[in-house]
C-alpha cells in the first residue's frame, strides 16, 4: 500500500461559492485531499441545490460539484456571521469566492483585501467578465458567456447556432481557478507568500476558442458551423445505422479513403475516382461523399459498422447518449465508478480524471446537507455551546 499522501492533504480551503464555477474548482481540490469548508446561506444555501431533483431528490449540478466538502450555513449580512467567515479565513490556506461582482469587496472578502491581511493566503476571485471594463458588473450566466465568447457562433448547424450541452464557460473558469490555486501554492512553497488569483469566465472561454479565434483574427474566416461534421475534412461526420444508432467516422488522409472505399463501402473504384481521390475533392463534393458513405452504413447495425471500420483502420466512434456513457465498457473496464454518500443515500459518481499511479485514490467524500457541519466548525473556532445556540436562535447560522 502506498505511503504517499494525497497531494493537498493538510490544505484548508474556505469557499463562499454558488452555482458551478467556484464549486467545481473547489471540488477538484477536495478530491485531491484538501479540506473544503463551503459557506452557504441559511434557508436555502447554494442556489444550485434547487436547480432540479434528478439525483435521487437532490440537484444534479450540486451533487456533481460539491462532494467531499463541509457545509457551514452562515448569514454574511450579519456582522456576527461575517466574523465567523473571517475567523475561518484566518486559519485557511486558500479562499475562493464567486459572488456577484462587487459583493465580496463590500464584505471585505475580495482577494486583494484578504491577501493584504494574510500573507500566506491564496485568495481567488472568480467573476463573469473581470474586475474592470464596461462589462464588469454585467450578469454572467454560463449561456450568456458562451454567446459573448463566440462559442455559440461556431457550434451547431449552418441554419442554427447552439450553445454547448454542458456549462462550458463555468467549467473553463473552474479549471483555470483550480490550476491557478495549484500554481499559487507552489509559489507560496518557494517564497512563503500566497497572493490573489483572478479568473474571468469570459477570458477562460475565449482562450478555449483556440483555432477558430486565431483563424479569424489573423485574416481567415471563422470556421462554418457543420453540426458534427468537420469543416475542412470529408468524410468526417455521423451516419445513421440500421438499428437506429449513429456512427461517426473520420478519414484523415487519402490512404485511409482508399481503405474505406475498398473494405467498408465495397467500392474500390472510388479510391482513385477524381471526384473522391483527394480530401480537397471530397470536400468539394461533400454531398456525394456523404451519400456513398451513408448508403453503405445504413444497412449495417451499429456494432457491425464499428467492427468493419475498425478492421479497415478507420477512426470511428458511436454517437452515445448520456445513458450509454454511464454504461460505457471502457469506463467499466478501467473501474472508474464509485459511490459517494449523500443525505438521500449513496449515489454513483465517476473517479476524477487525475490519476496518481502509486499514490492513493482520489478522496470522493460525501455531498453535504445544508449546514451539516456548522456546529462542528463553530466548535473548532472556539464558540461555546451557549454561543452556538445564540447564533442559531438569532438566525445567523443554521
Mean pLDDT over the residues: 96
Output the helix-strand order: EHEHEHEHHEHHEHHEEHHHHEHHEEHH
Give the structural class.
alpha/beta
Shape descriptor: elongated
Report the sheet-strand fraction: 5-15%
Number of helices: 17
Q: What share of residues is helical?
A: 25-40%
Kindly, what is the distance between the CA atoms of the first and last residues, rounded to a whole number of angstroms?
A: 41 Å
What's the number of extended β-strand segments? 11
Q: What strand order characterises the main sheet?
A: 3-2-1-4-5-6
Describe the structure.
The chain is an alpha/beta fold. It is about 40% helix and about 15% strand. It has helices at about 20-30, 60-65, 80-90, 105, 110-115, 140-150, 170-190, 200-210, 210-215, 255-265, 280-285, 285-295, 300-310, 320-325, 330-335, 375-380, 385-395; strands at about 10-15, 35-40, 70-75, 95, 120-125, 195-200, 235-240, 245-250, 315-320, 335-340, 345-350. Strands 3-2-1-4-5-6 form a 6-stranded parallel beta sheet, sandwiched between helices. Strands 7-8-9 form a 3-stranded antiparallel beta sheet, with helices on one face. It has a two-stranded antiparallel sheet with strand order 10-11. A hairpin with a 6-residue loop joins strand 10 and strand 11. It is elongated. It starts with 11 loop residues before the first strand and ends in a 5-residue tail after the last helix.
Amino acid at each position: 500500500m502506498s505511503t504517499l499522501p494525497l497531494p493537498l492533504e493538510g490544505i484548508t480551503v474556505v469557499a463562499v461559492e454558488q452555482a458551478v464555477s467556484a464549486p467545481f474548482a473547489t471540488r477538484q481540490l477536495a478530491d485531491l485531499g484538501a479540506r473544503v469548508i463551503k459557506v452557504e446561506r441559511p434557508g436555502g444555501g447554494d442556489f444550485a441545490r434547487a436547480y432540479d431533483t434528478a439525483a435521487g431528490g437532490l440537484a444534479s449540478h450540486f451533487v456533481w460539484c460539491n462532494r467531499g466538502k463541509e457545509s457551514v450555513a452562515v448569514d454574511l449580512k450579519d456582522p456576527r456571521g461575517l466574523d465567523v467567515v473571517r475567523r475561518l479565513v484566518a486559519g485557511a490556506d486558500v479562499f475562493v469566492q464567486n459572488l456577484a461582482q462587487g459583493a465580496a469587496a463590500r464584505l471585505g472578502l475580495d482577494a486583494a483585501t484578504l491577501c493584504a491581511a494574510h500573507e500566506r493566503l491564496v485568495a481567488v476571485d472568480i467573476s463573469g467578465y473581470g474586475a474592470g471594463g464596461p462589462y464588469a458588473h454585467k450578469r454572467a450566466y454560463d449561456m450568456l458567456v458562451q454567446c459573448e465568447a463566440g462559442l455559440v457562433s461556431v457550434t451547431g448547424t449552418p441554419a442554427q447556432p447552439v450553445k454547448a450541452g454542458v456549462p462550458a464557460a463555468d467549467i473553463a473558469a473552474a479549471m483555470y481557478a483550480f490550476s491557478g490555486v495549484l500554481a499559487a501554492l507552489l509559489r507560496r512553497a518557494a517564497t512563503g507568500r500566497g497572493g490573489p488569483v483572478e479568473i474571468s469566465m469570459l477570458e477562460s472561454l475565449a482562450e478555449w476558442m483556440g483555432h477558430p479565434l486565431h483563424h479569424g483574427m489573423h485574416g481567415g474566416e471563422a470556421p462554418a458551423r457543420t453540426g458534427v461534421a468537420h469543416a475542412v475534412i470529408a468524410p468526417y461526420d455521423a451516419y445513421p445505422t440500421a438499428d437506429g444508432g449513429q456512427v461517426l467516422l473520420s478519414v484523415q488522409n487519402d490512404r485511409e479513403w482508399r481503405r474505406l472505399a475498398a473494405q467498408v463501402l465495397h467500392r474500390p473504384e472510388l479510391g482513385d475516382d477524381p471526384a473522391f481521390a483527394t480530401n480537397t475533392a471530397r470536400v468539394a463534393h461533400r454531398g456525394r461523399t456523404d451519400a456513398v458513405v451513408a448508403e453503405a452504413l445504413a444497412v449495417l447495425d451499429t456494432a457491425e459498422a464499428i467492427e468493419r471500420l475498425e478492421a479497415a483502420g478507420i477512426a470511428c466512434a458511436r454517437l452515445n447518449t448520456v445513458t450509454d456513457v454511464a454504461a460505457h465498457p471502457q469506463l467499466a473496464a478501467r473501474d472508474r465508478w464509485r459511490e459517494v454518500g449523500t443525505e438521500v443515500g449513496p449515489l454513483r459518481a465517476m473517479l476524477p480524471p487525475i490519476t496518481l499511479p502509486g499514490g492513493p485514490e482520489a478522496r470522493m467524500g460525501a455531498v453535504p446537507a445544508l449546514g451539516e457541519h456548522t456546529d462542528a466548525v463553530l466548535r473548532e473556532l472556539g464558540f461555546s455551546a451557549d454561543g452556538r445556540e445564540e447564533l442559531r436562535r438569532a438566525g445567523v447560522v443554521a
